[in-house]
Every structure is written in structure tokens, then in C-alpha cells.
Design goal:
It is a single chain. This protein has 101 residues and is mostly beta strands. The chain has one domain. It is 13% helix and 39% strand. The chain has a four-stranded antiparallel beta sheet with strand order 1-2-3-4, with helices on one face. Strand 2 (18-27) and strand 3 (35-43) form a beta hairpin. It is elongated, with a radius of gyration of 15 Å.
Length: 101
Amino acid sequence: MIVVTVELWPGGDEARKRHLGTARIVNDATGTATVGHYDATFSKRGSPTSVWRRSRVTNFPRKRLGAWDLLCAALVAALGGLEPGGLRLSARRGQPPREPF
């Protein structure tokens, strides 16, 4: 499992940190040595265990791409599709994006 936690540290002070979100990406163990399938959940500010959005990434080339690429693919799948020149995160929510790989 990959876990990415986003925190705000006001003025760089860890003692005052606030949770902004958490991503959890889990390999579903149905892929191959070179291609993985993943389920992801995302939480929102202040609720690290509550699921805000879910997504699925299939046919991810895990030997060629890395963890940041997987996180990006999971976010795009949860928040919207890909458009030429970058991400579009609004109009296509809930629809599977074109796979970026």
C-alpha cells in the first residue's frame, strides 16, 4: 500500500500541523509482473480515515513508471480526465479518463 498524507504546517511549525488529505493506493494483486491494477481512496481535510473519493487504475506499467505517476493516475481517475496540455479536473468527474500511459 502507498499512503500519501498532505499536511499544512503554518509557518513551518510542525506542532501546528493540519491534515489536508490522505491518499491510499492498494495493489489488488490481479496484475502481472509488469502491469498492476490499483484501487485508491482519498480523504479530505481533517478526516484522514473518511473516504471522500475512490478511483481505480488498471494496466499501470509498474516497471516503467513510478509512485508519483501512479498517484497522478489515481488522482486523475478520481477527479477528472486528461486533456491535451494537462489535466482537466472539473467537467468529467466520475467518468474514466483516457489512460496516460
